[in-house]
Amino acid sequence: MLSIMERFEANRGKSADDAGFYWSGGPVEVSSHTWFISNFSGITAFETEAGLVLVDSGTERLAPGLAAQLRKHTQAPVHTAIFTHGHLDHAYGLKSFLVPDQPRPRIVAQRAILDRFARYERTAGLNAGINARQFGFAPGSQPGDLPSIFQPPALMPDLLFDERVVLSAGELTFEVSHCRGETDDACWVWCPERRVVCSGDLVINAVPNAGNPQKVQRYPWDWADGLRAIAACDAVSLCPGHGGPVVQDPMKVKRLVLETADYLDSIVRQTLAAMNDGAPPHVDILHRVKLPETASPWLKPIYDEAEFIVRNVIRFYGGWWSGRPSELKPASRAALAREIATLCGGAAILLAREEALAEAGEMRLAGHLADYALEAASRGRGGPRGRCRDLRETGRWRDEPDGREPVPCCGRYRAPTIAQRLTLNRTAGLRHGCGQSRVTASGFCFPGPSLFGRFKSLFDRFNSLFDRLGNLVARSLRLQ
Predict the structure, then answer these.
(1) Burial 402-440 (b: 16+ CB within 10 A, else e)
(2) What is the DSSP string of 404-428?
(3) DSSP code of 11?
(4) What is the pLDDT of residue 89?
(5) For the residues of 250-288, what is the DSSP string, one character each?
(6) Nearest CA to 189 among 204, 171, 201?
(7) Which of 27, 138, 354, 425 is disulfide-compatible with 369, CB 3.0–4.6 A?
(8) To 10 degrees, the CA torsion angle through 179, 181, 184, 185?
(9) How far apart are CA 264 and CA 243, in angstroms?
(10) pLDDT digit string, tens, across residues 32-79
């Protein structure tokens, strides 16, 4: 199964609509003396009489290659850099674009970017873990780099704004507007003279990353407002945060941003209506929302998905408690799983029912029972808990093929959530055809003959089922 960076490589040379989020290439001239280039994330360069205005700068590790490609078209020094937000793939590569001996460029960002960088320093280990399981490791980095890369960039912004700032560079004007979206420090850039808009991650050529289950709060209601403001500019070309640009096609620009705004508005409106109807438990709200359906190539659920956006709206307005009394002060997962297994007559019976549900296509229910079956069996020394220790140390399962989780925003859950990974694979992966992660029976060390006799067949049957499900995924569903 391909890693996220391998997916970018596999889509190299495809059109923006076909590759979607995974487009890479350029430089593409989107207007006179204006180029867009992307490798994981997009960068736009406006050549002016005063020098280059650069919108975003890529990751520190990928930026040198992008800069080398751009320098085939222009040798102008960087006059101004605008960071659309402070993520590692947008604000960390600027140094590579500077020409020798040039003065420090003006660097512009929304004021909340400083709080972001401070948070990165406070939570470097957390972010390293999240990116390790989401991407295998952070895009453009190496696994050993993870804790160290969550530090402020080498070149920090020196012009901060709150809601809007208008800049001049040579003969061009740049209107920079704040819009909370994927981040609270997000902004987008409009150059009226060339009729080019740079959206940052408000546009990623996929379902907006507005529900990412491992990341801090997103703001889909403000996001939709920002997209409508972009539509009002009547831009001719659009340079996105991820994916390919729209070049000299104002009708497509407007359609793309308005469809995406409508998509987000529908989710937010329905979620709030359900929440306002008596504040039901969160899972009930989730199942009351009719998720939008669209065939538009820029709204494929290949990085995030609509159901997760519902969750993010609930989190913002409804807090962390699910609404179920038992989950306010829950027992440990292992204790609950053992009690349920005892009531059922053992983990093997749970797994047998899970198999039946899976065969019937009831993947969500099957995932719950798989959780309980695996957690009830995770007792004693060695065994699954020993495997969890391996995962803590290495970030992956020993003897496991190099698989990735189905929806990249989900990532790979770390110890001790063996069954959580299964649940993510089945509920998300089978919907989007992204493959599976395997748990091999050979990796479990059973602690004694009695436990071996009781559970060996359980894990063997689980393995067989998981392999069959994986083959079904590979045959019938493909990542778009």
Answers:
(1) ebbbbbbbbbbbbbbbbbbbbbbbbbbbbebebbbbebb
(2) --SSTTT----TT-HHHHHHHIIII
(3) T
(4) 95
(5) HHHHHHHHHHHHHHHHHHHHHHHHHHHTT---HHHHHHH
(6) 201
(7) 354
(8) -60
(9) 19
(10) 999 999 999 999 999 999 999 999 999 999 999 999 999 999 999 999
Mapped onto helix, strand or coil, the DSSP state of residue 432 is helix
Residue 256 in contact with residue 246, Cβ under 8 Å? yes
Residues 6+ apart with CB under 8 A from 325: none
- What residues form DSSP beta bridges with 35? 29, 45
Residue 415 pLDDT grade (very low, low, confident, very high; cuts 50, 70, 90): very low
**Which of the four CATH numbers 3.100.10.10, 3.40.50.620, 3.60.15.30, 3.40.1190.20 does domain 4-265 have?**
3.60.15.30
Q: Where does residue 478 rank: exposed (0-12), middle (13-18), buried (19+ CB within 10 A)?
A: exposed
Would you kindly state where each structural domain of the chain is located, as residue ranges?
Answer: 4-265, 269-318, 331-476
Q: What is the pTM of this model?
A: 0.79
Selection from 469, 466, 451 nearest residue 400 by Cα: 466
Helix 347-359 crosses helix 363-377 at what angle (to 10 degrees)? 160
Q: In the block, which residue shows the tokens 């919108």? A: 55
The contacts of residue 355 (CB under 8 Å, 6+ apart) are: 366, 461, 465
- What pLDDT score does 145 carry? 56
- Residue whose tokens read 């590579």: 96
Rounded Cα gap, residues 40 and 137, in angstroms = 13
